[in-house]
Amino acid sequence: MSISNQDQSSRRAGSDPVVATEDAGTLIGQPVPRVEDSRLVRGRSRYVSDIAAGTDTLHMAIVRSPEAHARIRSVEKTAAQAIDGVVQVLTADDLEGVQPLPCDWVPPGMDFVPQHPILAEDTVRYAGEPIAAVIAETKTAARAGTQAVTLVLDALVPYVHQETAIADGASALHAKLLDNRGYSIRWAAGNVERAFARADKIIKRRLTNNRVTAAPLEGRAVFSQFDPVTGQLTHHTSTQLPHVHARSLATCLGFPQQKLQLISPDVGGGFGAKLGFYAEDVVAAFAAIRTGRPVLWIEDRTENFLATTHGRDHVQYIELAARADGKILGMKATVLADLGAYALDMGPGVPAFLTGVSVTGPYKIEDVDLEVIGIFTNRTPTGPYRGAGHPEASYMLERMIDELAVELDLDPVAVRKANFVPPSAMPYKIPTGLVLDSGDYAANLDKALSYVDRAAFRAEQTAARRQGRYLGLGIAIYSEMSGASPSIGMAAIGFRRSGHESARVVVHADGRATVFSGAHSHGQGHATSLAQIAGEVLQLPVSCIEVVQGDTRVVPFGTGTFNSRSMPVGGTAVHMAAEKIVAKARQIAANKLQVRVSDLNFEDGVFRLRPGGGVGRMFGRTVKKVGDTAKGIVFNYLTRLTLPKPDRSVHQGQISFAEVAGEAHLSHDVPLGMVTGLDETVFFDPKEMPASYATHIAIVEVDPGTGEVHLNRHIVVDDCGRIINPLLARGQVHGGVAQGAGQALMEQIVHDDDGRLLSDAFSSYAMPRASDLPDFETGHTVVPTKMNPLGAKGIGEGGAIGAPPAIVNAALDALRPMGVRDLHMPLTPMSVWNAIDSATKGETE
Amino acid sequence: MTELTLTVNARPVTSDVADTTLLIDFLREDLGLIGTHSGCNSTQCGACTVHVDGQAIKSCAMLVLECEGRDVTTIEGVESGPDDQGLHPMQAAFRTHHGLQCGFCTSGMIMTGIDIANRLGTPDRETIRAELKGNICRCTGYQNIVTAIETGAEDMAKAGE
């Protein structure tokens, strides 16, 4: 399909070289190319499968349920055990003392928590659920083993949709939860009935947010090694949360944590799916301990579709009450969130809290009544996926704003602006309790609009329609609570995870540094961005700083990477640790130069005497000289040894950071009373989460003959506060938009009526390819946050939050003249064609 | 088991292999060339792309015995040295333009990029996007990959002059 009239300069803007930010320092704000790329472009990768390649390891393969809901009558292992090369076949009864997988986010009020068993015991509840594990000498033997295990299952009625699972007469998936409702959480504020009574216009819609999957290109992988002599378990796994998962693994196995080293090396993408803690980790470790031999499990792509957590999957009933001028008075919504078969890890909390708290977005809507109901179904458990709850809330809100604009015959931009929380009102507490700390939504929206001449577009759209071509423009703006914290807040919402992030900065004797971070990159480039932050403070180039992550022996405390927190929380921790280092280095430098700390400048990596100083400096110098002499006298008195006389003149009024570092290690001449070392650890636990935001504008063309929706242009103006590396920031926006476009246009997890997964390969689960997407046009506004000293907010997830509603709004803008009133994601050609067909035949949905 | 002789990254290799051994597994497990990755089991994602006799091939879909007597080049074979000057122009372009995030698809993208340049010279962005239909990236949204291949191809052409 040819791309219609495009503004050439805007089209190129997306691929313009990235420049330093306006507030850039020597490193922070600079588009530094990534240090890790030198090895990654050469194929010198260290994914779990790379570490295990060629080693003498056992291989694990999993027998999974083909049925969505069944009683297990028998699992016959003998044939499998007899296969040459099969070492063990494990089922639930072999896992003595092993605990089921934890649910780390139990919303208050969720009384019954159906935990995911490690291996199914008497009932399986989703197609793909692990039932047995075959441990064998080779991958081939392991696979043969799985095919030789005989399952006898008595099928039960499967509930494959959240509305059928709570319909009258539905039977219980879990004996202790008769109505399949895991929880019902209410977010209410103000007086919503009064708001609705006063309204000029009430609109009601049923919206859906499709079930999708993260599909990182590297699936899950586990390589577990146990040394029976030392009792040490070295567990390699592809995860976003090394510390949380080390705790979970130790708890499930009853394993002592000082003997556990969990290593997550290179991670080939996560997007939230690798926040889950899964059964295969536990079984592999269990088998490694039992056999004393390494055990390797590499998920194949089908298994990733079957058994790695899925994302989204909401049915939303929403009502908006508004005045004729577009001012929103109130909002009511019931969200039916599909939790899947079990309460797995973070899953239940995502709709409950992350959708719940963000439901009013960047708007001032004070009368709200939202109910989020978490429902169990016979499908793969859901979990966090890029945006985690925010995309669902933003889609609902942004679709409704456009619907309201259409019904009131108002400009959708004007409706949004009439309802924004203005900067003057910030920090602004939204009805659900969180705070919009800073931001100028109108300015951000205006900047995005400057990329498009809307009047010209409308003219083009009208002209195109006469030729039977359907162009559409759609807008979405969202706000997102990024930088998950504080720890005490986690406690209040039942989230069993910390909100801090750790950083340790160590300076070596040559003045170079290592940064140990509890955050964990799975593509975000922390080896570079955290080095930039440390380097800015320490005045070291990035090449002199090594960032270490993902090894619990080396970084014992940490929280991990999710909710776009690694710069606001992880980066701030690094910044604070580096500042402590410099403060101490100043003291050592001042002592060496025989001056006061206040006499020194630190510039270009050198401590130099400030000009001037006067009497105070001379006095300080004298005091130091006296101190040196006194020290020598006392030392000689106590030991009869003579201290070498420090030659202060050798430094000639300046000393480099490297020399200071050398002194910190040697410690011959540090200030009296100071404990030596340039080694600082900081735990940063922010009090509140900063809210990032962005405007997305999508321009599409819909082919009415085929229903194909072509994304012609996609514009994003993002505000993540202070940008650490604009090259990396833009990359995150691109990636997020691609996933958001995928959800809007083509991605869908499909089960048949019996709950069997149909979309289990890249050939059946459509994901965007290069030719499906345009060059994105990106820009930033910058309103720094006061929530952390960096002024940084998160950026990693925003693309996936704003893109779907912008694209769907655009498609509706294109097709409303044909009578199309509603579209459901994904906008597949079939689905869009059907909508057009029904509309033109005069049928309503 | 069958004896196999082939050239990998300009070095002769002789080995006994099981007949069902896939090229990707031979490269990774037998030769320790772990830069070629497996992202799917259905030839869709392209992470496993290598060159066989100068042609881009998905190594997950080829038996190693089919490579008897042939020339295989993997990602490890395109560089000319360990420092920045030793990067192949396509590798350097990926680094300069932030054409990778998690890195898992990258080897396949670079090998495909080199193949695109070999066949088409210096194609435009739209052509490159179409040529990438056999390669999936989940991290980058493709834009920087397209820029990397566009400029990598230009740099390859300049170097060839």
What does this entry look like structurally?
The complex is a heterodimer of chains A (845) and B (161). With 845 residues, chain A is an alpha+beta fold. Chain A has 23 helices and 28 strands. Chain A has a 7-stranded mixed beta sheet, sandwiched between helices. In chain A, helix 18 packs across helix 20 and helix 21 crosses helix 22 (798-815). The two termini of chain A are 29 Å apart. The model of chain A is unreliable at 1-13 (pLDDT under 50). Chain B has a 5-stranded mixed beta sheet with strand order 2-1-5-3-4, with helices on one face. With 161 residues, chain B is an alpha+beta fold. Chain B has 5 helices and 5 strands, in the order ββαβββαααα. In chain B, strand 3 (49-52) and strand 4 (55-58) form a beta hairpin. At the A-B interface, helix 2 and helix 21 of A face helix 1, helix 2, helix 3, helix 4 and helix 5 of B.
| Beta-strand content of chain A | 15-25%
Radius of gyration of chain A from the CA trace? 30 Å
Reported for the largest beta sheet of chain B, the result is: 5 strands, mixed
Mean pLDDT of chain B: 97
Oligomer: heterodimer
Largest sheet of chain A, in brief, is:
7 strands, mixed
**Strand order across the largest sheet of chain B:** 2-1-5-3-4
Reading the helices and strands of chain B in chain order gives: EEHEEEHHHH
For the secondary structure, the number of strands of chain B is 5
Contiguous helical run count of chain B? 5
Distance between the termini of chain B: 46 Å
The low-pLDDT segments of chain B are none
For the biggest β-sheet of chain A, the strand order reads 3-5-1-12-9-10-11
* Class derived from helix and strand content of chain A: alpha+beta
Report the C-alpha radius of gyration of chain B, rounded: 15 Å
Mean pLDDT across residues of chain A: 94
